Amino acid sequence: MTNFFLQFKQRVHNISDIELDYLNALKLEDRAETWDYLDQNLVLSTEEKWKYYQENCILLNNFGSIVAEINQTNIQMILQGCRKTVQLLNILSIITDPQERFEIASYLLRLFDLIINSNLIQRVIALLDYSSYPHIQWEAEKIITFFAPGPRIAHTPEDSLFHPKKLTTKAILINGGAVQKLLALLKSPCLEVKEQALLALGFIARHDKEAKDVVITLKAVDALLSTLSGTKLDSVIKKATWTLSILCGATLPKDATLKSKDDMIKILTTVVTLLFTSNNPEVITNVIGISKYLLPLMEIKEDNMNVWERLVQMLSFPNHIIKRSALSAVQKILELSDVQTQFMIECGLLGQLGELLMNQNQDVRIDTCSALVYLARKGYSWVSFNLSNIVYNGFEYIFYIVQIDL
Q1: Based on the number of CB atoms within 10 Å of its own CB, is 132 exposed (0-12), middle (13-18) or buried (19 or more)?
Q2: What span, in angstroms and rounded, lies between the C-alpha atoms of 214 and 210?
Q3: Is 60 inside a domain boundary?
Q4: Could you tell me the residue range of the domain that residue 110 belongs to?
Q5: Parallel, antiparallel, or unpaired: how do β-strands 384-385 and 388-392 relate?
Q6: Cα separation of 302 and 299, whole Å?
Q7: Are 201 and 220 contacting, i.e. CB atoms less than 8 angstroms apart?
Q8: CA distances from 245 to 17, 102, 237 (A)
Q9: Do residues 258 and 264 lie in contact, with contact meaning Cβ atoms separated by under 8 Å?
Q10: pLDDT per residue over 297-326, tens digit each?
Q11: pTM (two decimals)
Q12: Total number of domains constituting the chain
């Protein structure tokens, strides 16, 4: 029956195990793409989107005057110029569909080209030091948050300045000292400035190993943990744990390991209590994402075994995103640690997986089957599961009472 599970996986996905895990991880961890860059979740109709785009095209024609405003000494002029720049870049959070964004590629390429050639980012980074004017710091952080990932246009040629592999936008920010200034702003008394700094750091670090390593080298882990320890606000905790999950490996599952064991221990010690105390689904999901990359590298001890127990319990959490995140973490442990696999089974993992085979959410059922494949390959041959119908792409896969037999 092991072959049955393997055939199911190949029939449904038609890709290798490594590719499957990588794509599943990216799909889950890129859920942050549904956030607005400013954490506003702005949703516009098609008509509203294109009206916004047309207005921005007119504004872009006056880009020179915007740069002049930002380079002024008058605070109101600087603020006005920053807000216009945010408006120009905000199109990235409004038009997110790859095909739609491809249709406005000329606008995006022109905008980023003008920003870079005008040396505007260097001025924006300098504005982060305007501690007496937090509203200017906040606008500057928004610009950096939008600018960091680049225009992200589908089918960008590899020789283009804006291909993701070129790291053009992130290199400009890093070389200009933006990361150090953003880390300093985590101590800002202004909540908006603190929270946008957390987002900006996450946007700089994600999807890119070199940028992530730079952020870690600049002591971001300590700064983020200090921020977490000093707040009870869900909005801050959500953003801090999201950025920490990126530093731990989220969005880069193929190259995820933190190099410092001390950092791993500090992170887990600080955030693990949130698995037991937080009621915020996004916070819990972020902490599970952190645990996914750190737990397989840790040793189970008497004072920390409740973390693995809690992870197994998370499989029965009502929120399906949390279920899938927990399943992803479980799969990572099944892949990397025989000792932890056995311990989770002793904590009731098999019973949880049996229940999840009958979950109403299709993705949860598919993820559960992937976990069962890992267990089958590890030699667990005495487990039976009840009938479950798996529907995927219009085809129905019916699971009868199965004895996994290697």
Answers
A1: exposed
A2: 6
A3: yes
A4: 36-218
A5: unpaired
A6: 10
A7: yes
A8: 23, 30, 12
A9: yes
A10: 889 999 899 999 999 999 999 998 899 999
A11: 0.85
A12: 1
